[in-house]
Design a protein that fits this description.
With 59 residues, the chain is of the alpha+beta class. It has 2 helices and 2 strands; from the N terminus they run βαβα. α1 links the parallel β1 and β2. It is elongated.
């Protein structure tokens, strides 16, 4: 079984994230895919987008 785990801070989600995910789906053709947002971005002191909102955007 092929599993794709696509992680990132997604802070905020943008077209680049979507394009990369679609390309990975096409190239890898996984049986299942999981998008895993980081609770806190390691590159920002404070997140401009709350975690719950990022989760909603990713759904």
């Amino acid at each position: 079984m092929k599993v794709l785990v696509f992680g990132g801070s997604f802070d905020p989600v943008h077209k680049g994230h979507i394009a990369l995910f679609r390309r990975a789906m096409k190239q890898i053709a996984p049986d299942v895919a999981h998008i895993v947002p980081a609770y806190h971005s390691p590159f920002k002191a404070k997140s401009p987008t709350p975690f719950r909102l990022r989760m909603q955007m990713l759904k």
